[in-house]
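I would like you to sit down with the record closing this message with an eye to the fold:
=====
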Amino acid sequence: MAEDQVKESQPVENQPEAEEKTLTENTVEETITDVPVVDEAGSEVPVEDNVVDEAGSEVPVEDNVVDEAGSEVPVEDNVVEEEPFVEEEPVKEEKQDVPPAEELLFPRDTLLSAGIHIGTRMKTLDMASFIYRVRPDGLFVLDVKKTDDRIRTAAKFLARYEKAKVAVSATRLYAHEPVKKFCEVTGSTPIIGRFIPGQLSNPQYSRRVDPEIIVVSDPRADAQAVKEASRVGIPIVALCSTDNEFAGVDLVIPTNNKGRRALAVIFWLLARQILRERGEIGFDSDPKETIDDFEAKVTRDEEDDF
């Protein structure tokens, strides 16, 4: 009993020291926490708490994040490592002299065998943009793709007009049959043979034609038709070879306008595309008339007489 009283009355010498140690540690932690983070210029850098990644793990925050130039980089809340970007090498496309057949209105071999790309040994400045190259024999060669594009454009243009208001002029012998058949298929008005002066501009002429648009097979051979149509303000669509000029012409279809087979193919393609644009046949359908039906059938004697 006496010993217990002595122990209770005995002072504890280590207790103040322990309390002092605990107080010192708390003070140090508060001091460390309150110390601001500064960059090299002495500016305070804000420290964000609880920076976590997408998986929810804590991401350590760097005190001073700078780039290679020494500029400060802001630390975002969600730090996600991105995979390095690898730039793919561009695929080099091989240039083709003539587009693939499926891109044209008609197979390439058929167009080339008909000679629609063959021009003359003369070249005008107007036709320079439609010429592809010059052959060793001096003949200029037209760009088949541009011919194809102009047929599409001309068909859309002509399909807007009333059938009977579209006139087609053909002075050259080889253009007579293609134009005649073209007008039968599309319902256009043919002007075949020699163009009589005043046929468009003279209201007193008994055989006067009053179209809203005219197509000519050759602006040089059909010069009178071009002249009168320009005078009365009628739009002109012309088949032009390398030796033609654009005076008075509103829309050019670059093609061989002298060859018998070439004229048949061009007028057949133009007629088919007009029917497609009008919705009279499907865009994958052809008219019942064939290219052979459009081709002129003349004898040597008829050529000499002409």
Q: What stands out?
A: The chain has nine helices and nine strands. Strands lie at 37-38, 44-45, 131-134, 140-142, 166-170, 189-192, 213-216, 236-240, 251-254. Residues 15-34 form the longest helix (20 residues).
